[in-house]
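Throughout our pipeline, every protein is held as a single compact record rather than as scattered files. The remainder of this section carries one protein's record, kept here as part of the documentation.

===
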Amino acid sequence: MIFEKTINFEPTSLKRHRHTLKGRTYDPSAKDKKKFIQLINLPIEKMKHPIKCVLKFYSSRPKSHYRSGKYSHILKDSSPIYNTSKKDIDNMAKFILDALNNKLYIDDCQIIKLECEKLYSEDIGKIYMKFTEIIKEDDDNEKIELKEDELKEDELKEDELEINVLKKDDDKEKVKDDKEKVKDDKEINVL
């Protein structure tokens, strides 16, 4: 199964759990998680296999990146290309993975590969996410969803095998040629 979605939601960092004076623990990110989940149409069935996750966080640019007056829609030359704001990319990823825990997948320990990017958006903040369930081919002809990387690796391995086979064939021909030369040399020596 593949779940791919772009949501208009300003990227948020996961906040640490807090403790009250009475010894209770609460999640300060609970309201943000609830808003985030309401924006997503989750599939009925949860992912059960290992998952590859791609996340792209598009934060809206601050007003200080833009010119003023009638040119307020144009970026300044000095505005940064890369988003190096205070929000840490790992905490933003934790927010998404924690919010979708037990909703899109059974547990976030199923995620075996995570690719993240932190970028600027030209308009509002948004989050792109793609979750790909990785299912390998089985003898029972189960559903196959291989990662693109694995397909490329398999193609490379096949190419290497073909090259090795060609090299072996070339080596065999060289050995045959060498044997023929030795035979010719022996015949010449006998004469």
